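W.,

You were right to be curious about this one. When I first looked at the sequence I had no strong expectations either way, so I just let the prediction run and decided to look at it fresh. Below is the sequence, 352 residues in total, followed by the output.
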Amino acid sequence: MTAFRRSPLARLALASVLAGALLSGCVVGEGDDRHLQPLPARLVSEMSAKGMSQSDPILVRIFKKESELEVWKRDRSGQYALLKTYPMCRWSGQLGPKRREGDRQAPEGFYTVTADLMNPRSQFYLSFNLGYPNPLEQSQGYSGSALMVHGACTSAGCFAMTDEGVTEIYGLAREAFAGGQRSFQVQALPFRMTPENMARHRNNPNFAFWQNLKEGSDHFDATRQPPRLAACDRRYVFNAAEGSGPMTPGAACPPYAIDPAIEPLVYRKRDRDAARFAELVGTGSPAMSYAHLDGGMHKSFRTLLKDLGPERMQPMVAGKVAISRPEAALADPFEGDDGLGRADTTGSLAQR
């Protein structure tokens, strides 16, 4: 995405994409077939070069701090490999999980998206529902609805993409479902779960929760397979061995072990990361201050907003969707509401 910083023409092209996304996001016509658009030839070519087919299963990873969404796809080896990284236009709230309706937070956790959660008639071009609150979140009394990945480059509790980006992501999910995948996993994480990031955020009150999320991230990184999900004792359990349980999200955990085929791979990564974390803390690596967080928008869009200025961004308005205070996104992306002048009061917005 660095090309947008170097090329005025590229920046103007991106501005046009953003404007078009907002202008089209609320309009869904009769017989609309945007959800049936074929995958771009260049993306199909990339898949082929990586040993993937359109029908192979997918997995999605979302990193809030970096404002990036990754689509992973199973290749001919049987493992998942990164296909493409998409910049997020916007996500609202601060780092940390969503706990209640109207808290303006984008969720964090592990989610299972089934075909019935895909929304081809979205008010925000195309979208899919994460399935928040998941069983663990329900057991903790968390509330909220219609938390989505969608287009139109505006967020009120969701993860917003460009229309072009969400069209590709939606199409990849559509083709995976058509190929027989019954559901795909979404890992919504606060940041890339590296020892450096964990050390930087060690004073955050959500740190214990993030350590649990890192367990699941480590399972995927070590095996390149979506971890099997369970929950008990207010935490996620990943890849429990056959015969473990039963596990109930709101109850204490029964005795269990990690799948013995996976445990050595995961523990090697865990121990390596723990040693690096201890080294960073021991040598005085600074912990982050939470008076201000730099996030909520991919750096390429932030650069564009700075280059164009509020006056040129102001016309990007369409009915129910508006960037009404773009300068607020530069001053403080977490100021007051979602940083773009609209509070997330319901979490639903007519099912996105």
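Here's what jumped out at me. The radius of gyration is 20 Å. And, maybe more interesting for your project: The longest helix spans residues 263-282.

Coffee later to discuss?

I.
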